Amino acid sequence: MALLLLSIVILGFILFFYGIGLRYFAFIPLLFLGFFFWYYGATQTIKVKWSEVLQRYSLYVAWTIILAGLVGVFNRFGMDLTQTALGLLGLNLLLRVWSYIAKYDDGKSVFQLGYYFCIALLLIISLALWGRAVFFDVFMMLRVLHLGVIAFIIFIVGQYAEIEKYIRYKLGILTLGAIFFFVFDQIKNIYFALTINSVILTGLFYGISRIFQFKPQSEDKKKDVSVRRILAGERMTASKKVFASKSTELLHSFLVAMPGRAKQVLEMFNVILILILIVYYMTHLADFATVNHLLYRVVIATFISNVFLLKKVGYNSIIQNLVVFLVINFAIYVSLFSYFSGDVGAVVGRWIVWNIYSASMIFYAHKVPMLAKIFSKTDYIYWIVASVGAMIVNVVLLIKTDLPGQLIFFLVLVYLGLQSMVLFYATRYLSKIQTIQ
Fold it and tell me: How far apart are the first and last CA of the chain?
């Protein structure tokens, strides 16, 4: 059955390309099919049965083809493309709600894909017909619509049918994103807006870390505490901290069970804010006097504190751990650049000294109690990678100075030699430390 469905999907693609006059493109579905079998045949780690893979993805492709065909049919009969996309968007929403009521598990994901397909179509239409200004307005309206849809599924549909647990986390993520967009829309000063959003994230991450400090009593422990022991004045021993209320216990369970994807989105919020700051700063270097250096440093400080809070609760990944060291180096560079009014020679000399000093601090960082609790060996590797990146930037800046070329050449050799020796011994030193996990 799965192979038959896949064959129909491939045939549908071939007929589609023939129908629009692109006959040569009809070979693309066949190539895709060949690549599909080759990839999964060569991958030994796949743990899903062939029939399950074919049934799942073939159904997605088939429904996408149906939607694309409906768009073409309605457009052929003169219906406005925007109205068609809105109509199909409403159709997919109704079918998705019906899937929950009828307990049609495949429909929950298939019609959700169709819903996203229609949203993407609306965004493409708005960008192609009305330009970027209307595109962002449409994007904001669709975000509000999506937030309302998720809330409707949780609070209304959830009263009559069982919904997936991840949807509740999606509602929280979308709400946080809506708050960020609202701040950016209402506050035109980009530095002030970034500061507010960064502080919001800090407050959220701090609250999560505080909730994680509470540890629930096990059911056996709760049963062991009897009224007789309480009346006898016997001391009840529990975990380090016990929940103050049932709501706090539920919130703790909710955060502990958070899917990995939701955790990644939370840390990506933190990374995106700092990237916006860096990109905005780099694109406005010509207007250096307008930079709000105080708020600039506040955003960087909140970003770093957010990274530490996320690491404390285990909500961190490779991207954030690497970015934090790059951001620290960038922040120091900008501070030197602003202090010396853009004098490259003055900046690069001090930056080289800082780069060597920073790399040498790897020998002592694990002895700092706060860093020892949250830093792993992988974090120190990121530190080394960031030091290498800064070293490359320093060499480029050194070449751009007004020093004689021959002197620059020998200074670069000395600098590369010193930095390489420090990083070599730092790497070997870390490999011998057993306490850093």
Answer: 50
pLDDT of residue 30: 59
- Cα–Cα distance for residue pair 403/154, rounded to 1 Å: 66
Secondary structure of the chain in HEC code, one letter for each residue: CHHHHHHHHHHHHHHHHHHCCCHHHHHHHHHHHHHHHHHHHHCCCCCCCHHHHHHHHHHHHHHHHHHHHHHHHHHHCCCCHHHHHHHHHHHHHHHHHHHHHHCCHHHHHHHHHHHHHHHHHHHHHHHHHHHHHHHHHHHHHHHHHHHHHHHHHHHCHHHCCCCCCHHHHHHHHHHHHHHHHHHHHHCCCHHHHHHHHHHHHHHHHHHHHHHHHCCCCCHHHHHHCCHHHHHCCCCCCCCCCCCCCHHHHHHHHHHHCCCHHHHHHHHHHHHHHHHHHHHHHHHCHHHHHHCCHHHHHHHHHHHHHHHHHHHHHCCCCHHHHHHHHHHHHHHHHHHHHHHCCCCHHHHHHHHHHHHHHHHHCHHHHCCCHHHHHHCCHHHHHHHHHHHHHHHHHHHHHHHCCCCCHHHHHHHHHHHHHHHHHHHHHHHHHHHHCCCCC
Q: Give the span between the Cα atoms of 78 and 92, in whole angstroms.
A: 22
Confidence at residue 115, expressed as pLDDT on a 0 to 100 scale? 92
pLDDT band at 393 (very low <50, low <70, confident <90, very high): confident
Nearest to 152 by CA among 91, 88, 90, 97: 97
Q: For 93-126, write each residue's pLDDT tens digit.
A: 999 999 999 988 888 888 998 999 899 889 888 8
Angle at 127 between CA 72 and CA 29, to 5 degrees: 45
Token reading at 117: 């397909």
12-18: average pLDDT: 54
- Which residues does 206 contact at the CB level (< 8 Å), separation at least 6? 309
For the ranges 58-72, 226-240, 248-262, 376-390, which has the lowest average pLDDT? Answer: 226-240
Compute, in degrees rounded to 10, the torsion defined by CA atoms 252, 258, 262, 263: 70
Cα–Cα dist 12/134, whole Å: 34
pLDDT tens, position by position, 225-284: 455 455 555 444 444 454 556 777 788 888 888 888 888 888 889 888 888 888 787 777
Q: Which of 184-193, 206-215, 281-290, 409-418 has the lowest mean pLDDT?
A: 281-290
Q: Which residues contact 401 (CB under 8 A, 6 or more apart)?
A: 344, 345, 348, 408
Place of tokens 């099919």: 33
